[in-house]
Structure formats: C-alpha cells, structure tokens
C-alpha cells in the first residue's frame, strides 16, 4: 500500500496540500520518486493530519515549508540543519520528527520531556502511524491541552503562558537544536 491508500483509509481528517516546489524538493533530497519520502516530497505540499495536529512536510506549500527548505537544501536553511538527518514532521504542541541517516528511523522530540526518542519506525511506517496509529497513547496529556486555532506553520508553546503560539521554526530554535546534537554525538559513539 502507498501513502495515498493510507490517506484514503484514514479515520482522521487528512488534508493534502498542493506542492509549490515538489520537483525541486525531490531533486534536492536525491531520493527515488517511487519511495514514500520521494512521493510525498514531489506530490504534496505537506500533509495535515487530525485537523493539523501532525504536519508532514512535503514539497512545500503556502502553508508549510518544504523538506528541502527546512534542511537548507534549496536556499539558506530556515533552521539549524540536522547533520545526516531530515526533519520530516512537526506537531501542534512544538514536537518534531527527524529521520536520522544513522538509524534510518524517525526520532521524536516532544516538548514535555525535552528529549529525543527513537520511534523505532522507518519513514514509511511513520507516515502510516500518523494516519492510523494511537496518537492519544503516544502524546498522553499533551493531546488533552486546549489549543487555539493554529496555522499549519504554528504550534502551541507549552513552556510559555497558556495559549501562546509561535512559528514552528522558532520552536525548533528554542527546543531541539542542542538536544539533537547530543543525540547525534551519542549515536556516533555507538
């Protein structure tokens, strides 16, 4: 099954955004267009899951940056790039998901723990999980938080006054940068 089949079968709301830079993103990533990552990069501007709770990055849209833009593969990076990794998703509470080349798995960063965790999922498995997995169990109390209406490129900043929102690029700079360097250094020692 492909990501399109998973979207069609999803019980959650799913919005597939039109890509603005799909071909350029695919070329910059240098992945096979038939792979899940390549297909999402080329054919979507991103995918908003569960009323925007999760935002899978794709080929960029008016509402989300592309995978390549986030990584600085097309222009100046929007954020500090991930060494041998790619930020593939963000969520509504300032969490991030990075595909690391060192493990070939997606690692999550949640703002309540301020730690990176290996999801144990490859990219295709991660996409499937976002559409049909148990988000309530994964997020716990974070899912129960009241959240205002958010743009696709904004998230709730849970360490500030209730209801404070910020652009996801600002939250990336605030939280995971140093913690990601620690994780990569630890993986390099393994």
Q: Looking at the structure, what is the overall shape?
A: globular
| Mean pLDDT figure | 89
Distance between the termini: 34 Å
pLDDT < 50 runs, ≥5 residues? none
Strand content: 15-25%
How is this structure best described in words?
With 190 residues, the chain is of the alpha+beta class. It has helices spanning 3-9, 22-29, 36-43, 67-71, 123-132, 135-139, 168-174, 176-189, and strands spanning 14-17, 46-49, 54-56, 85-91, 96-100, 105-110, 115-121, 154-156, 165-167. Strands 1-2-3-4-5-6-7 form a 7-stranded antiparallel β-sheet. Strand 2 (46-49) and strand 3 (54-56) form a beta hairpin. The longest helix is centred in the last third of the chain and has 14 residues, at 176-189. The model has no long low-confidence stretch (mean pLDDT 89).
């Amino acid at each position: 099954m492909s990501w399109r089949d998973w979207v069609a079968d999803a019980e959650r709301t799913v919005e597939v955004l039109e890509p603005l830079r799909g071909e350029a993103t695919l070329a910059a990533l240098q992945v096979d267009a038939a792979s899940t990552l390549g297909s999402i990069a080329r054919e979507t501007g991103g995918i908003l899951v569960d009323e925007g709770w999760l935002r899978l990055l794709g080929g960029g849209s008016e509402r989300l940056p592309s995978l390549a833009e986030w990584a600085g593969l097309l222009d100046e990076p929007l954020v500090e790039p991930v060494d041998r990794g790619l930020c593939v998703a963000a969520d509504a509470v300032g969490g991030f998901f990075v595909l690391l080349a060192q493990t070939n798995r997606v690692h999550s960063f949640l703002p309540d723990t301020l730690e990176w965790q290996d999801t144990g999922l490859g990219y295709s498995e991660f996409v499937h999980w976002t559409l049909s997995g148990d988000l309530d169990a994964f997020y716990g109390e974070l899912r129960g938080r009241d959240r205002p209406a958010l743009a696709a490129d904004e998230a709730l900043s849970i360490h500030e006054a209730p209801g404070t929102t910020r652009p996801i690029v600002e939250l990336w700079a605030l939280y995971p940068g140093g913690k990601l360097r620690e994780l990569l250094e630890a993986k390099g020692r393994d």
